[in-house]
Amino acid sequence: MISENQQQRRISQILRQLGRAYLERHQFSEAFEKFQQLAELEPENPETLMDLAMAAIGLKDISDEAQAIYHKALHLNPESEALKVGLATLFMQQEVQTDFSVDICEQALKFSPPNSPKLHEFLSTCYESRGAAEKARVHRTLLLLNQKRPDEIYQYFEDLWLNGHFETAMELLQNSHNGALENSDLYAALTQAYQLLQSKATSSDSQTVNLLLSACDTLQPGASFLNLHQYMLLKAAIPEKIEEPRPEHTDDTDEYQFILEEIPLDEVFKSLSEDITPDPQEVPPFCLQKDLLDKLNRADGTGTPSLEEIESRKAYFCLQLSLE
């Protein structure tokens, strides 16, 4: 004889199988009905509430009843990517602008879903309607990054740099998802360079210096005026001297060995000459002709362009910086 518990488990199993079969066929109304019956039998089962919420999402249900289901499903499945992305998509499509919908969309973006650009656009609209101009601007920029329009992206970042919004630039670089921004290291280096030059300082931080040097190595100044502009900015922000650590000396030196008559004087001088610590590494001062103009020799043999030919505002700005 089948016990009551066994009978209930069997009913639950049948309801789940039927609901999922309907869900796979996109028969969301039938799936919702089966999962709702199942939820009455096991109201705290995370799997059941997840299935019920997904069926409600398929129905594009944004009623109060559905909202209660979504809240409970998220409470029982707080790390579910499918649930968060599904809800974010539903709220975006139905233009649901509530605190709950905005929060879900923000969480969904952490998974970098394929519809990230549309979610950024939706969130920028939500924040604008709420008067949160800064958050709206961030999402408009992230939308731009996801659309991968290099010229527009660079122009946007350059406006931030020239207006001193360096923290905003770094925040955008940190928040870009899945490599949406190509050459992010170069953008980070340029952000540091603009900030240093605006404060008329150079950095002694080894990490920053290495970032600037690495970015210089990736550029070809002769390829374009933009590359020239970027190269000169980075070069102007690199300190002229990079200090190298000096090796520590022990008390047991050759001089003491000589005093004790353990080694001849010639050996002392020889050892001293070998152990002399070189001066701090000298970085040659920036030379406009050697470092830039010579690299701009034209392939057609017409020679090196004169300064008068370099008419771009950016290049001229950098030339002034490097020659100060």
Task: Considering the chains and any ligands shown, give keywords for the structure.
Serine Threonine Protein Phosphatase 5, Tetratricopeptide repeat, 17 helices, 1% strand, mainly alpha, two-stranded antiparallel ribbon, 2 strands, 324 residues
Commentary on this structure:
The protein has 324 residues and is mainly α. Among the domains are: 8-78, Serine Threonine Protein Phosphatase 5, Tetratricopeptide repeat (Alpha Horseshoe); 95-145, no CATH class; 148-217. Helix content is 65%, strand content 1%. It contains 17 helices and 2 strands. It has helices spanning 4-24, 28-41, 46-58, 64-76, 81-93, 99-109, 116-129, 133-147, 150-162, 166-175, 184-198, 206-218, 225-237, 254-259, 265-275, 288-292, 313-323, and strands at 241-242, 281-282. A two-stranded antiparallel ribbon has the order 1-2. Helix 5 packs across helix 6 (99-109). It is elongated, with a radius of gyration of 32 Å.
Give the SSE layout.
Layout: H1 4-24, H2 28-41, H3 46-58, H4 64-76, H5 81-93, H6 99-109, H7 116-129, H8 133-147, H9 150-162, H10 166-175, H11 184-198, H12 206-218, H13 225-237, E1 241-242, H14 254-259, H15 265-275, E2 281-282, H16 288-292, H17 313-323
Helix pairs in contact: 1-2, 1-3, 2-3, 3-4, 3-5, 5-6, 6-7, 7-8, 10-11, 11-12, 11-13, 12-13, 13-17
